[in-house]
Amino acid sequence: MKAKIHVTLKQGILDPQGKAIEHALDSLGFKNAGNVRVGKYMEVDVNETDKAKADAAVKAMCEKLLANTIVEEYRYELAG
Amino acid sequence: MKIGVVVFPGSNCDHDCQHIFKDVLGQYVEMIWHKETLLAGLDAIVLPGGFSYGDYLRTGAIARFSPVMGAVKEFAKKGGLVLGICNGFQILLEAGLLPGAMLRNRSLHFICKDVSVKVENAATSFTSAYESGQVLKIPIAHADGNYYTDPVTLASMQANAQIVLRYCTPDGKVTPEANPNGSLDNIAGIVNAAGNVLGMMPHPERCAEAVLGNDEGKLIFLSMLEGLKGNKKQLKMVGAG
User: Fold this and answer.
1) What is the fold of B2-237?
2) Closest chain B residue to A42 measured between Cα atoms?
3) What is the pLDDT of residues A17-75, one digit of tens each?
4) Who's near B22: CB < 8 A, 6+ residues apart?
5) Which of B43, B97, B199, B232 is placed for a possible disulfide with B84 were both Cys, Cβ 3.0 to 4.6 Å?
């Protein structure tokens, strides 16, 4: 199965990269762009046929390594 | 004293730490490759600065799972002195040996310059050689030094005197202008509740020799040695030596 994982800063944590990009968009004339937040996207092939096992594995990966849950949150989808 | 300096793939301040303890302070230093799982006979451990694992994923995120970290955690649990400098501080945070997390510097720049920090707590094993409130000039060199923790933990750390070093003006005022990276409460260095694990973003090993024009950082290492000698005396007295 393929896990598609997004890791983003929690709301309320300052995201200077997001702000920098927001300003750049504004300078380029995109006046309708706001609240830019930058995150990470990762793909992991999970070698499990049982969807529940795969889900538990990906959740554990996120909790333990892929996200720092003090300042980040994660979401993922499993396909295949 | 026997000092262990852990070397992760990508550490680059390990030799500077070795140099200070061995050549400047005359101690026995062991360089410990991150794959070692046993740490025997050490009095203190240093996690040096650098870019362990290239800062991939998050700075310190992968190094915290290096085989050696199990032994470092045990050592810390038993009250051993652990000093984390820059990347070392980041690894201690990711490993949960210190509370909180590091974010990207607010300016998004890698900042490499001398700053002033104030010793807020001169009663720790790492700062006893300083005066309380002493201001020192010390270099920083980092892109992820923006310390963050939640309000409850911050209040607890403040109540517990766990904030050891704060960025300040050269005359000791803790102001937003003196904060190089956006770090919460101008925090530059903290200690754990038990007081045996300290993490600091500035580099004391880069200002611990007169020949470099600044040896104010040497007192961090002297404080550690002072504390260790004291402990050994105590141990001898109770017959545990």
Assistant:
1) Rossmann fold (3.40.50)
2) B57
3) 999 999 999 999 999 999 999 999 999 999 999 999 999 999 999 999 999 999 999 99
4) B28, B29
5) B199
Does the active-site annotation cover B86?
yes
The CATH label, of 2.60.40.3880, 3.20.20.140, 3.40.50.1000, 3.30.1280.10, for the domain at A2-79 is 3.30.1280.10
pTM over 0.80: yes
Q: Give dist(CA B113, CA B224) in Å, integer.
A: 25
> Are A14 and B108 an interchain contact pair (Cβ–Cβ within 8 Å)?
no
Contact A14 B106 (CB under 8 A): yes
B15 an active-site residue? no
Amino acid at A52: A
CB B160 within 8 A of CB B239: no
Q: Annotated catalytic residue: which of B86, B94, B142, B207?
A: B86
Query: What ipTM was estimated for this complex?
Result: 0.90
Ranges of chain B with pLDDT below 50 = 238-241
Give dist(CA B88, CA B209) in Å, integer.
21
Told to judge if B74 belongs to the known catalytic residues of this protein, a careful annotator would answer no
**CB B182 to CB A14 under 8 A?**
yes
Residue A17 to residue B104, Cβ atoms within 8 A: yes
- The kind and range of the H/E element at B229 are helix B218-237
Residue A21 C-alpha, separation from nearest chain B C-alpha, in angstroms: 12
